[in-house]
């Protein structure tokens, strides 16, 4: 199966994380990729159905928390640079 652009970008970020934290990084990346589509779908529904606000809010908070946890696994000197890249990924 071909890897998506998102998978490749997150794997690149994972490669910067210390070996002893790789298992945690893999879990976070799996969760981030899993939540990306439902979050996008919920956002589309939100445009026409305001009752989706709660669902979107829950998904968005979870997604943001996962991104923060992944960023926190990076070495301190890389965190600022990678936070910018992760922010671009989130918006992208």
Please describe the structure with a list of short key phrases separated by commas or semicolons:
79% helix; elongated; 92 residues; mainly alpha
Write structural notes for this entry.
There is one protein chain. The protein has one domain (20-91). Helix content is 79%, strand content 0%. The chain is built from 4 helices and no strands. The longest helix is centred in the middle third of the chain and has 27 residues, at 22-48.
Q: What's the overall geometry?
A: elongated
N-to-C terminal Cα separation, in Å? Answer: 22 Å
If you compute it from the alpha carbons, what radius of gyration comes out, rounded to the nearest whole angstrom?
Answer: 14 Å
Q: Could you name the ranges where pLDDT drops below 50 across 5 or more consecutive residues? A: none
Largest sheet: none
**Fraction in beta strands:** under 5%
Q: Calculate the mean pLDDT score and round it.
A: 87
Count the DSSP helices. 4
How many extended strands? 0
Order of helices and strands: HHHH
Q: Structural class of the helix and strand makeup? A: mainly alpha
Helical fraction equals over 70%
């Amino acid at each position: 199966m071909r890897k998506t652009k998102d998978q490749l970008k997150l794997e690149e970020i994972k490669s910067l994380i210390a070996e002893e934290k790789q298992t945690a990084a893999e879990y976070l990346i799996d969760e981030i990729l899993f939540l990306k589509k439902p979050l996008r779908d919920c956002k589309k529904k939100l445009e026409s159905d305001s009752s989706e606000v709660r669902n979107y809010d829950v998904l968005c908070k979870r997604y943001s928390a996962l991104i923060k946890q992944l960023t926190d696994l990076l070495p301190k000197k890389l965190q600022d640079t990678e936070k910018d890249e992760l922010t671009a990924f989130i918006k992208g």
